[in-house]
Structure formats: structure tokens, C-alpha cells
Design goal:
By secondary structure, this protein is α/β, with parallel strands linked by helices. The chain is built from twelve helices and 14 strands. It has a six-stranded mixed β-sheet, with helices on both faces. The protein is globular. The structure holds adenosine monophosphate (AMP) and zinc ion (ZN). The site of adenosine monophosphate has 18 residues, from α4 and α5.
């Protein structure tokens, strides 16, 4: 059995390499490790209790990990009266919801105490983060267990690895559970497409996530939400607006897609005409192969077009058919733009530009993971697969975590905490929330491990980023 080291910490054992060191379990379910996790970075208050059981499957080299979700709930602040997230409404919602969720989670655990506590430390709204982190500290101190201050974006990037271990999420996974190798294994590409972020990330290790492209202006989810508010007829306008736009654009689901992927980059950059008096331009078309995203120009064109239509003197300034075509084009152009940067990276590393670009292709990517709220869009799944196939990347696997794990949730915080903890990391109890925190170790703040307050195998790591507690927001 695994024993705590003399410093009172669990010995270093990375999930990716040395699962055999985790407590051995046999037929009946017995957790090896467990964590209570809290997420309060934005407007979702979420609590999870996750157990990890590991078995080294002796006789084979297969790493078999199983996790059991004891509890997972989320309450989202009611921001419908506002055009976006209202910080005070979100804060109030965390303050009123968190205690009840934690009490429910603990009731489900029959009084047992978890091995450690995980909470989102950043990036996010500082006062909101404080609600979750402070309670996590209190619980960990009262129980006498370690604390892990989790990087929210790292948790998004690691979520697909959790999915291959999940034993029980009956609403998400049907049929008998099969133990799997921890997938995807590093390195892999992930696209984070959410209300607040649009990023292409290369993940090469637990704390090594390189941001290959990010948005120059607004996030794709923000663009889609605002475009939906401009395009949708009032009777179908309801949050999440991205889903409402998808349902409106494709009322019959895939039967309505009728999508042909551009066969070349040249074709991808060409504006597609419509039967109406408008067409949508391709974002950053004039910027060549620049590794960035931009969605504000697209949103401006859509809003301008809808304003112009509203100014016409006719009774019905825009027909349902035209609105539907605009909804389809909005989604097509946004998603092709998202896919275009994946294709550029693949071309430069394993594709036709690999030699010329000089980019390191030594670690071959074979998986692209798409997460964030926008990833639950089924048309995006179809379009991305079609674009990869059309450009010669049929061998690249595309993985989408289940929608409920794509939006902000505490289960991903629990899993990231679990990966960090089993790799020897813990946080000190003087950590404070971090509003802006890169996950790229090449960034000025040193990325995930650049923040102060990380212990590794009991030793304090040197920090690049100092406490933000007394700096201005
Ligand atoms: P997140 O920021 O990860 O919580 O994701 C929220 C964003 O995902 C919002 O902008 C939603 O409108 C968007 N979203 C949710 N469902 C869909 C969907 N089916 N299609 C497109 N966007 C969606
Ligand atoms: Zn998030």
C-alpha cells in the first residue's frame, strides 16, 4: 500500500507513468484517493466529489484507471436580465449556493473525509474565486488534509483525460464500462471554445500547455451569443443562445447540414455567396497564416446587417428563411475559422509545410480535443471532421468531452487536482486567487507553476508570479 512520505505527503506518482504505485484495489469498488472540488471562477457554482481507483492490471502494460463520481452539481447565476455576466449577481449566487452544494456532497459521502480538497484558484473574477478558495481552505484545514489550488484552464485542457476513466456518469455513458488507457496521452491539441475563451493549445505534459493561438478580440461563444440575439426571432430567443442558434439554424439536425468542406486554404479564404444581398467575410483572411483568432469583425457585420434590415419600411424586414441562412452562415464562418488554425498548425508540423516551417514535429499529434460550451454544437463536430478529412488529416482523431463537462464544472477541477496531487503537487495555505494566470510556462508569469504557493514533493517551488491579493483589479 502506498504510504505517505516522512514529510506527510504522498510520494510522487504521475498518473501518466506510475499508476502502479497508487493503492491497489480489487474486485469491489474501493477508492484509492478522493477529492472534494469547488469551482467558482465565473458564474457557475459547482461542487464535485471524485474518487480515483487504480489498478496496475498486472501482466500487461496497460494503465487502467477508474474514477467514480460520487457527487457533481452546478448552479448557474441568473444573468438573463443582463447582456452578459453581471459580476455582483454571479458573486451573490456563489455566496448563496456554495454552502448547500458542499453540504449535499458531504451528505452523499456519509461523513467520510476526502483525501484532499481542490478549488479553482484562477484565472477568473477575483471576488468569485475567493468564495470557493476560502471555503476550500477552511474545509482542508478542518479535516487536516492537503489543498490544491487548481488552474481553471489547465482543468479544461485535462478534461478529456478524465473522460476515459469515468466509471459512473450513467447519463453520459451508456453500456458496460470498459477500463481504458488514459486518453488522450500527451501530446495532443485542444481547442477551448467557450463564452470567455477561444484558444488552440498544445498539451505536452501535465503542466506544459503551450498556447498556439488565442483570440485578438472577443471569444467565439461571445460572438455566437450576440449574433444569436441579433438574428433569432423573439419566440426562440433563450439562453444558452448558442444552442438556440444551432436549433434554429438546423431544425432537422444533421439532415439540414448540406456542408462541403473547402478543399484548399484558398477556397477556405473565399467569401461564399448566398442567394440574398449579403455574404459573410472570412475572419483574418488578409492576415495570412497568423496564429490568432478574431470574431469581432464577423459579429459587427452580422449586427450591421440586421440593423439595416430592421430599418426597411416593410412589415417583415427579414424572412425566417433569410434569418435561418444567416444563422447557418454565422456558424459555418465561425467554425471554419476555428478549424483553420488547427489546420495551419498541422500543416506546419506534420503536413506539407513541415520542412519549411522548422517547427518541432518530433512529438506527433494524433488527437484534437474540442472543449468549452461551444463544443457541444453538433454542427461544429461535423464541420471539423469534414475539414480535417478534406485536407488529408483523416488519421487525426477528434474528441469532444461530454457537453456537461465542456462548460465550467467542478468535476474537471477535481480531475486536475487529482492529476496534480498524484504527481506530487500541493498548495500552501497562504495562496490567493489569481485573476490573470497564463497556463503557458513560456509566458511572463511562468504559467501554471509560476504562481507562488506550489509545493512539489514537499518542497516549495520558486515563483515568478507573486501574490495578487494586494494589487489593483
Ligand atoms: P462556457 O463559457 O464554456 O460555459 O460556454 C458557454 C458558451 O457556450 C456560451 O457562449 C453558449 O452560448 C455556448 N454554447 C452552449 N451551447 C452551444 C451550442 N449548442 N452551440 C454553440 N454554442 C453553444
Ligand atoms: Zn471555463
Amino acid at each position: 500500500m502506498l504510504k505517505p512520505s516522512p514529510r506527510g505527503l504522498w510520494p510522487r506518482c504521475s498518473l501518466s507513468v506510475s499508476v502502479a504505485h497508487i493503492r491497489r484495489v480489487h474486485t469491489a469498488w474501493r477508492p484509492g484517493l478522493s477529492t472534494l472540488a469547488i469551482e467558482t471562477s465565473c458564474d457557475d457554482t459547482s461542487v464535485a466529489l471524485l474518487e480515483l481507483q487504480a489498478d496496475d492490471a498486472s501482466g500487461t502494460n496497460h494503465q487502467k484507471l477508474r474514477t467514480n463520481v460520487v457527487y457533481h452539481e452546478r448552479i448557474t447565476a441568473n444573468n438573463t436580465a443582463y447582456n452578459g455576466i453581471h459580476p455582483l449577481i454571479a458573486l451573490h449566487s456563489h455566496q448563496t449556493s456554495l454552502g448547500g452544494l458542499v453540504a449535499d456532497a458531504l451528505a452523499k459521502y456519509n461523513g467520510a473525509k476526502p483525501t484532499f480538497v481542490s478549488a479553482t484558484r484562477g484565472p477568473g473574477m477575483r471576488s468569485n474565486l475567493t468564495v470557493g478558495l476560502s471555503l476550500a481552505k477552511g474545509l482542508a484545514l478542518a479535516w487536516g488534509v492537503p489543498l490544491i489550488g487548481v488552474h481553471h484552464m489547465q482543468a479544461h485542457a485535462l478534461t478529456p483525460r478524465l473522460c476515459s476513466t469515468l466509471e459512473s456518469l450513467p447519463d453520459l455513458y451508456q453500456g458496460p464500462w470498459e477500463p481504458t488507457t488514459l486518453q488522450p496521452s500527451f501530446p495532443y491539441l485542444s481547442v477551448l471554445a467557450s463564452g470567455g475563451h477561444t484558444m488552440l493549445i498544445k498539451s505536452t505534459g501535465l503542466t506544459d500547455h503551450q498556447i498556439l493561438a488565442t483570440t485578438n478580440d472577443i471569444a467565439i461563444g461571445d460572438c455566437i451569443d450576440k449574433a444569436a440575439r441579433a438574428i433569432l426571432p423573439s419566440d426562440v430567443m433563450k439562453p444558452p443562445y448558442g444552442k438556440a442558434l444551432e436549433d434554429f439554424a438546423f431544425p432537422n439536425g444533421p439532415a439540414d447540414y448540406n456542408y462541403t468542406a473547402p478543399a484548399t486554404r484558398g477556397e477556405e479564404l473565399t467569401r461564399r455567396p448566398t442567394k440574398w444581398d449579403w455574404s459573410l467575410g472570412v475572419p483574418l483572411a488578409e492576415r495570412g497564416r497568423r496564429m490568432a483568432f478574431s470574431f469581432s469583425g464577423l459579429l459587427t457585420s452580422i449586427e450591421r446587417l440586421m440593423r439595416q434590415k430592421a430599418q426597411t419600411e416593410t412589415l417583415e424586414p427579414i424572412s425566417t428563411e433569410e434569418r435561418r441562412d444567416l444563422a447557418r452562415e454565422t456558424l459555418r464562418v465561425s467554425f471554419e475559422h476555428l478549424a483553420s488554425r488547427i489546420l495551419l498548425y498541422l500543416e506546419d508540423t506534420i503536413g506539407r509545410n513541415a520542412e519549411k516551417s522548422g517547427l518541432d514535429a518530433s512529438e506527433k499529434i494524433d488527437t484534437v480535443v474540442v472543449s468549452g460550451g461551444v463544443a457541444s454544437n453538433r454542427y461544429l463536430r461535423h464541420l471539423l471532421r469534414a475539414m480535417l478529412d478534406a485536407r488529408g488529416y483523416s488519421h487525426i482523431k477528434v474528441a469532444f468531452p461530454p457537453p456537461s463537462l465542456c462548460t465550467d464544472n467542478a468535476l474537471m477541477i477535481a480531475w486536475a487536482g487529482m492529476e496534480m496531487y498524484t504527481s506530487g503537487y500541493q498548495s500552501t495555505f497562504d495562496i490567493t486567487p489569481i485573476r490573470k494566470w497564463s497556463m503557458d510556462q513560456r509566458a511572463e508569469d511562468g504559467g501554471i507553476l509560476g504562481a507562488e504557493g506550489w509545493l512539489h514533493d514537499g518542497n516549495l517551488l520558486p515563483a515568478v508570479q507573486k501574490s495578487e491579493a494586494i494589487t489593483q483589479s
